[in-house]
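Hi P.,

Sorry for the delay on this. The queue was packed all week, but I finally got your sequence through. Input first:
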Amino acid sequence: MSGEKFVGIVLVSHSAEVAASVAELARGLSGAGTSVPVAPAGGTEGGGLGTSSELIAAAAASVDRGAGVAVLTDLGSSVLTVKALLAEGDELPAGTRLVDAPFVEGAVAAVVTASTGADLDTVEAAATEAYSYRKV
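Then the structure:
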């Protein structure tokens, strides 16, 4: 798969630790290793709880390989911050999409699917499908 363009994944959480841990979990469970570009964007620049448009934009730029960027968020203002960045139109790479999916399960599904070389629509569908995962 050398030279293949993978969809990038950005995980936006109010907590830097949560974003980094979910990224590590998704990479580990997918077996994707370093092939799929995944970047956490958690917390604020000062290390506090919250969301940062600058951290999100930097994470998206870092995972952009030309196949699109799927952004998964945890709660309220993370969604609003990504929507605002998308509305501005020039802060995020072309082909960046906010994906409506559960944060942990969706991240794993997105990374697993992206590791197959799937396109952004397929990655989004897999992450969204994670809403149907039953636990009991």
